[in-house]
Amino acid sequence: MEAVAIAFYHQETDWPVVQTLVFDDPPQLKLLTDNIVFSWVHEGRNYKKLSAFIACHQKVSDKFLDDFWNYYRDLLPDQDSPSQQTADRLRYKFWKLFHTDSGGYQQLDGRKPLTLVKTSELLYVLEHPELPLHNNPAELGARTMVQRGNISDATQTLEGTQTWDTFMSLVTTTRKLGISFFEYIRDRISKVGNIPYLATILDEKSALNPFGCSWMPE
Questions:
Q1: For residue 178, what are the domain limits?
Q2: 23 with 135: CB under 8 angstroms?
Q3: Distances (CA, A) of 15 to 11, 12, 126, 134, 182
Q4: pLDDT at res. 58
Q5: I want to staple 52 with a disulfide (CB 3.0 to 4.6 A). Which of 61, 98, 114, 186 is the partner?
Q6: Could you say which residues of the chain have pLDDT below 50?
């Protein structure tokens, strides 16, 4: 069933098929897109969860986490002014960070190869600096749905589900665009028309923040 659903999605013509997806490594999403980017924030949490009980191991773990987040911070300015020289330096620094033995902390050393398997997905941002380094904004948007479900459990009909999805999407979209959801709904019900279509606003904002040259067709 998953294969059929994915195949149907990829042949979709009415809606754009997403080519690149940023997420926190759920296996069921890996075949959805051609290009996958893993969230650095979620990868860091894997190391934060390590349970070091011996003082020397705790010291090694803390030092590695400092190096991990320092490397993450090194990636941020590269997004603003990318260069091949900087990308090569960051690739080497990545290799050194995750290939260096900790000196006895086996739990940490056992975790590093699991990150190295994701090298291409974690460093894809060096090829396309426009990509975010994590997917927290998307998760915060989905959290609204979770909170709504915790309050009122679930819908009873298909129409209710569709209405729920529509309004939750509108809440998140207006919030990200800096528009009051209450004012938006009042504008639509009263048919005043002071607030443009959300699609129009999205087009205007997208035009101000175009994709970089790394996405241009050859």
A1: 136-215
A2: yes
A3: 10, 6, 28, 25, 28
A4: 92
A5: 61
A6: 217-218
Distance CA 127, CA 60 (A): 31
Same domain (yes/no): 15, 118: yes
Separation of alpha carbons 80 and 89, rounded Å? 16
Q: What is the pLDDT of residue 129?
A: 82
**How many domains does the chain fold into?**
2
123 and 147 in a common domain: no
110 and 39, same structural domain? yes
Query: Which of 119, 115, 117, 168 lies closest to 140, judged by CA?
Result: 168
pTM above 0.90, yes or no: no
Residue where a domain stops, chosen among 103, 127, 151? 127
| Residue 212 confidence (pLDDT) | 56
Using alpha carbons only, give the angle 185, 187, 189 rounded to the nearest 5 degrees.
65
Distance (Å, rounded) from C-alpha 196 to C-alpha 208? 17
Residue 211: what pLDDT? Answer: 58
